[in-house]
């Protein structure tokens, strides 16, 4: 109990972890030709260098042109474009889409400013995650494995997995609903879940054809979402003036508890904890020369520009959804929508016309009922267009969720498995609960409240991602380039920005207790002449 309490005390104050094995060999971080394992008794022995490819998240990386950084370059921006758009998929998953339509239905345009604020906060956090990955060469889960003691580390991993499972349930169920709509009910929910498992395997193996082609596929899915939801926006003809007023005026006139809870749900849907771990790993797909300060700064600059444009696009796609249902769903009852289904010439199948009950209660609002509403109001084509957009959102976010689970497992518990085994394991963790929900939910009409619950779960898990990343980028033992606003540093108690790198020759001095290139804390005294390291006895000081 004393040991457990000690570990939790260290975790609470973000202190240094004590190594479980004091005799574990350490590696001299500045010896680039040969690795010198150092033991507590001071003896040094030669050891072959571990191939870098075996340590990297990506074996094949996108090459960046080695040209002088004379300013902004469209060519370099194109080379760095990709990770930010994969990251932005989490801002467009079915959970976000359902939160958007519920926001429009209960508060009309008055909560768009909350959506904008959530995207701005998300951009700041994603910026930190990307910079951590670029400058350290490791993603958050790998750093957490070396930074925290065993019990807090495993707790973090469990929390991340819970967030991934909650997000995955939204994504898979959203995909299953879209297949149900596209097939006019011939594909039940549980069958849609099983189909999603299979096609996720198929699409994830597209990475074998290259990172750029894989990223292009995600860009295509984002384009599909933009086109389909844009079509619904044009059909619904929302009030543009009210839309922009709700975006810039941080006020909700006449709002009560329901609207407040919806605002909280928006934040929980937009800022996902596992997305920080994902983004810090995705930026490793570019071949950045981390031994040169200018190249690190250049990568950070272009990654931020790319992330800004990616989240800018995702924000407007979310706004399109809010606007459609703010215009058409706000203030409507079930009876109002049901009347449209029977009176308008919409060519809807008969079984869709009785989805909404004939009562005066507020209209049911979820992805399924939203599709039926669009079909009844604008014609059956609008229903199928909506289903295609949800299918693109669900499929893309399911794949990125699988990646997040893979990176978390590899980093936190250091499990190295072939790709198909990693996919099978991470998918199994999420598919079990999802299948149970779809089988025992009582049908597609009885899963309306599930999205709100899952958004709350992710909201609860958010501190388990925010605290670690703020800790990592503010710890002087970690090298980083954090050109953040001073107000951001004050909010998160960050020191002044600086570079601290264990393997960068452009450093003036190496701080004590820094991370070595294998992610371990090391106080090893390294000789100035690394070529003489084999003949020297290097003594490790106690932490």
Automatic annotation (TrEMBL):
Database matches in Pfam families: Nramp
Predominant subcellular localization, coarse grouping: membrane
Membrane-topology annotation of the record: Multi-pass membrane protein
Transmembrane segments: 111-134, 187-205, 217-234, 260-282, 303-330, 367-393, 424-444, 464-485
Keyword Membrane: yes
InterPro entries linked to this entry: NRAMP_fam
Family recorded in the similarity comment: Belongs to the NRAMP family.
Protein name: Metal ion transporter, metal ion transporter family
Organism: Ancylostoma ceylanicum
């Amino acid at each position: 109990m004393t040991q457990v309490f000690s570990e939790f005390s260290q975790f609470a104050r973000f202190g240094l972890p004590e190594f479980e094995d004091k005799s574990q060999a350490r590696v001299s971080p500045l010896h680039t030709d040969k690795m010198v394992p150092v033991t507590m008794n001071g003896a040094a022995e030669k050891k072959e260098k571990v191939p870098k490819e075996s340590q990297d998240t990506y074996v094949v990386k996108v090459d960046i042109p080695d040209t002088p950084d004379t300013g902004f370059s469209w060519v370099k921006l194109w080379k760095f474009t990709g990770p930010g758009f994969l990251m932005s998929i989490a801002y467009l998953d079915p959970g976000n889409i359902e939160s958007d339509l519920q926001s429009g239905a209960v508060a009309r345009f008055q909560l768009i400013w909350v959506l904008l604020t959530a995207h701005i906060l998300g951009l700041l956090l994603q910026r930190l995650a990307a910079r951590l990955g670029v400058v350290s060469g490791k993603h958050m889960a790998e750093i957490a494995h070396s930074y925290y003691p065993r019990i807090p580390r495993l707790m973090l991993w469990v929390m991340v997995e819970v967030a991934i499972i909650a997000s995955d349930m939204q994504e898979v169920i959203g995909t299953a609903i879209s297949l149900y709509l596209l097939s006019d009910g011939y594909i039940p929910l549980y069958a849609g879940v099983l189909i999603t498992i299979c096609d996720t395997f198929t699409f994830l193996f597209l990475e074998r054809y290259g990172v750029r082609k894989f990223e292009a596929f995600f860009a295509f899915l984002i384009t599909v979402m933009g086109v389909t939801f844009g079509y619904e926006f044009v059909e619904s003809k929302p009030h543009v003036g009210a839309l922009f007023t709700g975006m810039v005026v941080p006020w909700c006139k006449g709002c009560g508890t329901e609207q407040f809870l919806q605002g909280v749900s928006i934040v929980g849907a937009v800022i996902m904890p596992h997305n920080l771990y994902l983004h810090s790993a995705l930026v490793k797909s570019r071949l950045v020369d981390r031994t040169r300060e200018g190249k690190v700064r250049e990568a950070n600059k272009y990654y931020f520009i790319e992330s800004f444009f990616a989240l800018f696009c995702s924000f407007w796609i979310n706004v399109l959804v809010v606007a459609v249902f703010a215009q058409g769903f706000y203030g409507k009852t079930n009876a109002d929508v049901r009347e449209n289904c029977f009176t308008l010439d919409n060519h809807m199948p008969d079984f869709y016309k009785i989805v909404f009950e004939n009562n005066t209660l507020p209209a049911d609002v979820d992805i399924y009922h939203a599709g039926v509403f669009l079909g009844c109001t604008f014609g059956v084509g609008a229903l199928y267009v909506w289903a295609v957009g949800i299918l693109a959102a669900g499929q893309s976010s399911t794949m990125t969720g699988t990646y997040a689970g893979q990176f978390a497992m590899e980093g936190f518990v250091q499990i190295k498995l072939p790709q198909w085994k990693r996919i099978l394991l991470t998918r199994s963790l999420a598919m079990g609960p999802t299948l149970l929900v779809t089988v025992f939910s009582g049908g597609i009409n009885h899963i309306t409240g599930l999205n709100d619950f899952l958004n709350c779960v992710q909201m609860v898990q958010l501190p388990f991602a925010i605290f670690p990343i703020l800790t990592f980028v503010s710890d002087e033992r970690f090298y980083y380039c954090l050109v953040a606003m001073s107000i951001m540093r004050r909010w998160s108690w960050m020191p002044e920005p600086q570079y601290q790198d264990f393997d960068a020759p452009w450093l003036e001095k190496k701080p004590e207790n820094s991370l070595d290139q294998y992610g371990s804390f090391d106080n090893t005294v390294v000789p100035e002449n690394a070529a003489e390291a084999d003949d020297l006895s290097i003594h490790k000081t106690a932490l």
